[in-house]
Every structure is written in C-alpha cells, then in structure tokens.
C-alpha cells in the first residue's frame, strides 16, 4: 500500500542547489515508489528579487553577497558541478556566468501548474540557465522553455506580456517566507515535514519512507 504525499518544493531557478535537490528528490521518489505516491508543487522563491535586467557577473555577485574570493567561488562551482553530474545534470557555470532576475520565470511556472506541465517547465528552465547559460529573465528564452515543456508558445508570450500571475507569485513568496523559509531548496511534505538543501538521494529516500511509515 502506498502513502499519498503532497510535496511543496520551494526554490529558485538561479539556485544550483535547487536542481541538485530536485534531481535527488526525484530519484528518491523513484526508489521509494513501492511505498510513496507523491505530487510535487513548485513554489516560488527569489534569491535576488532586486536583480536588474541583464543580471550581474557570478563572481562579482558572490563576492558582494557572501564575501567569497575568486578561488573560493571557483572551488564551490567545481563541487556543485560534480554533485550535479552525479545526478545526470550538466552544470556549465564559468567565471563569466551571470546571476539573473527570475520573477517572470516564476510567473510562467505558476501558469504551467494547471495544465500539468510545471515539472517539465521547471527542468527546461534549469537547463536553459545552468546548462546553456541563458538568461531566464529573457522573454524569448522563457517562451522557448515553455515550448520545450510542451506548452503553447503564444500563450506563454501572452502571460509574460500581460503581467498575469504577478500578484499570485508575490503572495506565494510572502506566504513561504512567513512560514520561516529563508533559504532554498526547502522541501515541505504534507505541510508538516521540512527537508532543507540539496540532500543526497539516500537522505531523501530515508525521510520519505519514515514519513510514509508514520502515516
């Protein structure tokens, strides 16, 4: 008998640990499908809500935000790239990569949920940013990601141009912050259990099975 679970995956497109966490969670769900039947809902979180159009160099940004040296940044990128590769994801960050505004990406993700394409769009956006080095705030990039995910490009363009779902995303971001989420990824299971960070597959699997066993 399987245990039904609702999983809220709070994350940002510009967060490398979020794709690592998502890949790890998805693998853990596959391994535990004998006991767990889960639905993932992607929730918005912006690491850099004030980032202007065009973004900022990643090394510059990390130095300003965390005080990291170029050497520390390079070592961190190498470690993240290796962790992602273990999960089958190509992370192509370089010293010339940029951090971008992701608000419009979150609006598209909000729109994509009703049609069942949210997960596919999330993966397409991560690939566009981390693998292809594209700007997830660029309308053309967003429309292409929507089409890759099986969504209608003209409908995606209409959502972006109209400003649709702006307030819904703002409200959702505020809700999760009010619940104490200030770092991502944050994985909330059945509104009660929190798993933080890009954990290894085994950690996710153990947690899922424990929650299922507890009922």
Classified in CATH, the superfamily is Glutaredoxin
CATH topology: Glutaredoxin
- Going across the biggest sheet, name each strand in turn: 2-1-5-6
Cα-to-Cα separation, first versus last residue: 11 Å
* Oligomerization state: single chain
Mean pLDDT reading: 96
Biggest sheet character: 4 strands, mixed
Count up the domains: 1
- Got a strand count? 6
Quickly give the CATH architecture. 3-Layer(aba) Sandwich
Helix/strand class: alpha+beta
Order of helices and strands: EHEEHHEHHHHHEEH
CATH class: Alpha Beta
How much helix, percentage-wise, in residues?
A: 40-55%
> So what's the overall shape?
globular
Per DSSP, the total helix count is 9
Question: What tags apply to this protein structure?
Answer:
alpha+beta; four-stranded mixed beta sheet; 9 helices; 53% helix; Glutaredoxin; 215 residues; two-stranded antiparallel ribbon; 14% strand; globular; single chain
SSE blueprint and pairings:
Layout (H helix, E strand, L loop, with lengths): L2 E9 L4 H16 L4 E9 L11 E2 H9 L3 H17 L11 E2 L3 H11 L4 H14 L7 H10 L4 H10 L3 H13 L7 E4 L3 E4 L4 H14 L1
Parallel strand pairs: 1-2
Antiparallel strand pairs: 1-5, 3-4, 5-6
Helix pairs in contact: 1-9, 4-5, 5-6, 6-7
Summed up:
The chain is α+β, with helices and mostly antiparallel strands and 215 residues long. The protein is 53% helix and 14% strand. The strands form 2 sheets. The protein has a 4-stranded mixed β-sheet with strand order 2-1-5-6. A two-stranded antiparallel ribbon has the order 3-4.
């Amino acid at each position: 008998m399987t245990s039904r679970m609702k999983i809220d995956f709070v994350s940002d497109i510009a967060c490398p640990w979020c794709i690592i966490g998502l890949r790890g969670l998805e693998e853990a769900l596959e391994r535990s499908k004998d006991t767990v039947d889960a639905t993932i809902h992607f929730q918005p979180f912006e690491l850099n809500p004030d980032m202007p159009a065009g973004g900022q160099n990643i090394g510059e940004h990390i130095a300003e935000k965390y005080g990291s040296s170029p050497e520390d940044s390079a070592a961190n990128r190498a470690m993240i790239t290796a962790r992602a590769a273990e999960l089958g994801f190509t992370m192509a960050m370089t010293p010339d990569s940029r951090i971008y505004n992701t608000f419009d990406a979150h609006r598209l993700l909000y729109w994509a949920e009703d049609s069942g394409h949210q997960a596919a769009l999330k993966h397409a956006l991560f690939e566009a940013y981390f693998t292809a080095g594209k700007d997830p705030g660029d309308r053309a990039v967003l429309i292409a990601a929507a089409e890759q995910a099986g969504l209608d490009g003209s409908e995606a363009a209409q959502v972006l141009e109209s400003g649709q779902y702006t307030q819904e995303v703002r409200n959702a971001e505020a809700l999760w912050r009010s619940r104490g989420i200030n770092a991502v990824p944050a994985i909330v299971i059945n509104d009660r259990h929190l798993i933080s960070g890009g954990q290894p597959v085994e950690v996710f699997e153990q947690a899922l099975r424990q929650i299922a066993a507890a009922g």
